[in-house]
Design a protein that fits this description.
There is one protein chain. By secondary structure, this protein is mainly alpha-helical. It has one domain: M75 peptidase, HXXE motif (A middle domain of Talin 1, Up-down Bundle), CATH 1.20.1420.20.
């Protein structure tokens, strides 16, 4: 075999094993002529003079998303106001209902979390990793209120953190117009929002006391559709099939979420039967898989240079 076959197999992501062409003595054989690793641009399937996506092409999509964030935060401020009023009146049921609405609104703007900085931690930070845990002064926002309303069943403990939450959401809405949304990060959020839902919400980590994974999923699903719709003009020129498949997967997931509603409200995640949880997790994973192609199609970075396939290089 000689030095041309130093390695017999490659280990690929997902645990797949792929032969490296060992045994191909003839450099002109089909194995030796195997196509090199594809560049990002090669995923474009339409013919014609279609330029690569540039960072400037994201001005329209990110402007759409900023407007969405600002409008959603306005509604969230109303939810938080109702939360504060219910907590002050000792209305546990009303406070919980308002909290679920506010949490769902925040889930709806997940594609911009990376641009929110410290305000995201103040509004949506979790207790994990904080010195002192639940007693930490840095544990604020939605999940601090969640702890009070569900674990402690106390509206009194929710009053102060709900007031802080209202201030932080108001500050965030004021700064939305100046928030810089990186084009690459925005493209990645097309699938990362639901990916985080799968890992954090559907695992029960993100909302452990309220069991609000389904309402968060519904909000994340709505926000993902906004991202996909904003990128549609860039995508359909390059690979319309990606859009069709992604929309089909999102529609199927949306129907499954609606089927779990009980008298117009979503149940706790841990109240669903195991088969129901597995079905929703599987549909979420399927949607993530379909959406994972979106960033490659609209990747604003310069094209990667073509690389030779490993194992097909001449020995020097």
């Amino acid at each position: 075999m000689g030095s041309r076959c130093a390695v017999a197999v490659l280990v690929l992501a997902g645990g797949l094993m792929l032969g490296s062409g060992c045994g191909s003595k003839d450099p002109n054989s089909s194995a030796a002529r195997q196509a090199p690793a594809a560049t990002v641009a090669s995923r474009v399937i339409l013919t014609g003079n279609i330029p690569r996506v540039r960072p400037a092409d994201f001005r329209g999509p990110t402007a759409v998303y900023r407007r969405h964030v600002r409008a959603t935060l306005k509604v969230m401020l109303g939810d938080v106001a109702r939360l504060r009023a219910a907590a002050a009146a000792g209305d546990l049921t009303g406070a919980r209902r308002a909290w679920l609405a506010a949490d769902e609104r925040y889930a709806e703007i997940g594609a911009a979390y990376g641009a929110f900085g410290a305000l995201d931690a103040a509004i949506n930070g979790r207790v994990g990793g904080l010195p002192g845990g639940e007693r930490s002064a840095r544990f604020t926002g939605l999940h601090r209120v969640e702890l009070a309303l569900w674990d402690r069943r106390s509206t009194r403990d929710a009053v102060a953190p709900a007031a802080r939450l209202a201030r932080d959401v108001g500050r965030l809405r004021t700064h939305v117009g100046r928030i810089a949304i990186d084009p690459l990060e925005y493209a990645l959020r097309a699938h990362e929002v639901l990916e985080d839902t799968l890992h954090l919400q559907l695992s029960g980590q993100a909302s452990p006391w309220s069991g609000a994974a389904l309402t968060a999923l519904r909000g994340n699903l709505r926000g993902t559709r906004v991202v996909l719709d904003s990128l549609r003009p860039l995508l359909v020129r390059r690979n319309p099939a990606i859009v069709v498949r992604a929309e089909r997967a999102l529609a199927q997931l949306g129907r499954a979420v609606r089927e779990t509603e009980q008298r117009g409200t979503l149940p706790r995640w841990d109240a669903l039967a195991q088969r129901g949880r597995e079905r929703l997790a599987g549909l979420t994973a399927a949607a993530v898989e379909r959406l994972a192609y979106v960033p490659d199609i609209v990747d604003p970075r310069p094209a990667r240079p073509v690389q030779r396939a490993f194992g097909n290089q001449e020995a020097r």
